[in-house]
Every structure is written in C-alpha cells, then in structure tokens.
Here is the input.
Amino acid sequence: MTPLAGAAAAPSLVQSVDWLAIAPPTVAALAALAVLVADLFLPEHRKHLLGALALGGLAAAVLTIVPLVGADLSTFCLTADPADPADPTAPTGAAACSYVADPFTLVVQFLVLGGALLAALLSVPAVRDERLPAGEYWFLLLTSAAGAALLPASRDLATLVIALEVASLPAFALVGLRRGERRSSEAALTFFLSSVTATAVMLLGISFVYAATGSLHLTVVAEQLTSVDPRLGTLAAAGVALTLVGFAFKTAAAPFHFWVPDAYAGAPLPVAAYLSVIGKVVGFSGIALVTLVGFPTYADVWGPALALLAALTMTVGNLGALRQGADRSRGAVRLLAWSSVGQAGYLLVPLAAAGRTPESGTADALGSTVAYALMYAVVNLGAFAVAAHVGGEGRLRDYRGLYARNPLAALALGFFLLCLAGLPPGVIGLFAKVVVFRSAVDAGLGWLAVIMAVNVVLALYYYLRWTALLFRGPEPAEAATAPEGRRPGLGAPLAATLAVTGLVGVTLSGAPQLVLRFAATTLL
Here is the structure.
C-alpha cells in the first residue's frame, strides 16, 4: 500500500549494522566460539592447537582496528523524528547510539586486545605445564577479551553493564581453573562475591539515573541531567555516585581492592597478568565514559569522589606493597598485586582532575590516563613474563642472583621495575608520572599532587629493593646446592613476550613524546 500524501513517515525500527565498526569485539567472540567447537573434536594430544587458534583470533581482532583508524563510526542508533518529535528524551534530529567506534574506543580496544594477546602468549607454557583444561581456558580468555573490547565502544548504560559482566564472568572461572587447589577456589569465590556486590550497587545507581532522566544513552542522559526536576536532584546525584562503584571495583580502587592479592596469588600467573592490565583498562575506560560523557553536569559529585578514591588507592596499594617487599619470603605476585593497586590510584588522578574542569579538561584527562595506562600495560606484562620464567614458589628470594642465571631476564625485569618506579633508564615511567602529576596541579588539586609525590617516593623502596636482589650473588647455601648443567631458557612464548614489551618500553623511553601524541587522539 502507498502511504497517504502528506502523512508523516513513521521512524523506521529497522537499521543496518556497521560490521566494520563492531569488528574488534566480534572477531574475538567468533574466535572464542571456534575454540569451543574445535575443543569438541580435537583429540587430547592435539589440544595445543587451541592455543594457536586463540592467538590467531586475538591477532586478527587487533588487525581489524587498523581500517578503523581515522574513522568515527557508530551503529545501533535511535534517531528522533525531526518532523514529529514524539520522544522528548531524545535530542531532536540527533542520533543516540549504543556503539561508537571513535578514536577513544580504538585506542582502548588496542590496549585491551594487545594486552590479551600478550597474556595469551604467557598462557601457552602455563596451560601445558600446569595441565589446565585447554578448551575451557582459551574459550574463557577470548570471551573475557571480547567483553573488554566491547566496553569502550558502549555508549549506553545497559551495554556498559553487559560488556562489564561479559569481561568479568569468565575471569572468575579463570581464577579458579586450578582444579583441586584450595587457594585458587577461595580466590575465585572472593572475586565473584565481591564483584557481584559491586555490580548490584552499580545497577541500583543506574536505575536511579534512569528514573531521573528517562534514558540509558549517555548523550541523552547528559542532556537530561542539565534540566533534571529539582525533586529528583538527590536521586540523580546518588545514582551518579553508585554507578561509579562497579567500575571502581574493576580498577581495584580502594576500598574495593581487597580481592586483588588473593585473586592474583591464587590464579594461574598469566591470568593474574591479564587481570592486572585488562581490569585496569576496562575500569578506567568505564569511569571515563560515565563521568565525562554521561555525567559532566554532576562533576561536583564524581570529581571529589574520584580524587578521594585516587588518594586512598595509591596510599593503600603502596603501603601493602611496602609490607610485601620488606620480607623476601613473601610472594612476588602478591607484591605485583599490591603494586597494581597503587598504580590504579595514579590512573584515577587525571579523571579526578577533569572533575574540576569537565568542559576544558576532558582531553587532557583522557590523554594523561591513556598515556599512563599504555606504559603500565607494557611494563607490567613484561614483569609477569619474568615471574613466569622464574616460576617455583615465586618468592622474592628466588630472584636473588637472577642476573647470574639469566642475564636477559634480570635486565628486562630491572628495566620494567625502574619504569614502574619512574626512574631512568625507565624514562617512560617518569614521563607518565609527570604527565599525571601535572594534570593534578593544573586542576588546582595541590593536595592530591602532594599525596602522589609521597607515594611515588614510598614505591621507590620496594621497586629498588627488588631490583637490587636481581644483581646480588646467591646465598652461600644456595650456591653450594645449585645444580650443574645448562640453565633453562626462556622458551619461545616468554621470549616473544619479553621481546615485545622490552622493545616497546625502550622505544618509548627513548621517545616519550610518542605516548602523548598517541594519547592525544583519545578525544571523546
């Protein structure tokens, strides 16, 4: 039938999907399905092929980002009818989209999928040596990576929650994948229960925001919050604060950090490396989206909250790491866990600074946070690669004399630790800390800058103490009982991980301005 002349055309609910825009998370998800199906048919002696399939899937997902560079695509959009504005919550004639592939999305997806690829390289020997179920391991890792890649592209609160949970639920299983080991099961249970609680609080906050604005799309929420009914002002402010809880948990911000040491120590080491990097990137990107895109009007609520979280997180993390580093009988992974909590505090500083200048400070906040996240992801994955090589009980005392046993691994770990400490030759670490410090000073958060400076000095103790252990001679008793013969090598996967992380770290230390230029493309 032909519509009547002059009748207003109803807005179409049928829309095309931009497959190129959604390619990075889609390819990772398809690789997970391929691993799941292949696991059903491959005999036991060929299960190692699943690792190659997973690595190929993650590499393909990273490559799908290349054609998107310079583009600004969106899909799954709802567009208000300009002739008949029937939906008062939608901006007239403007699209409210659930998925956006802008420069910020692409940079974070590159960090997430690149970090997952390096964690997968670390996983190859771990799956073999610890006899982990290969099919389950690779499927869970790829599924979590797909959810993590979806999150930075999400532009409505429902998709953000779904992406967060898709990234989190497989991680619980990965932590507890050491079957029959009590410590692993307890760590997974603690991780799961605390995450479920944080998600419940976040969903409560999102329901408050929806009640106050009538929408879940971040751009529409931002518009509606500028003229919210005064009777709903308190409800909206409470919703803004509660929504941050779930992302603060993923970032391991204090006081939501208590799951980190046990989860890292109980999980297979590559899983701990994955959580330490991907969890941080997912958490900070989620916080950036909901605050800078969805809630800029309520910067007076989330700005001070993030500043307090940053100060508390870096202090608690560094004090915990000091306690771990003072005793060489303690685990190195636990030290890295507490260190990662402290590093999460530094990541939150620029976002807290943006709360003072939400309009003009958005670009600087994102650039500073992404620059620091890039540095942290590279050097932390490299440090975990050396920890995987040392193996054993993973005590700090096991690293004494590492230079005599494996000079390459010792030099690499020393460089990574100096980057985390912000000392030469780890210039990129110093550069990243200066950028974050400057964002606090420029925003007038002098007290936060002072707390950060004190924490940087505190961190020097345990980073330098660990570095010094690498170049000391072995204990006399250990030297007398040391076995003769050829020392074990790194192995191809660990050597590749160290080569990539070391090369990137050295390159960025030689030309730190590359990080700022890279981060400058993350404008929302």
The chain has 20 helices and two strands.
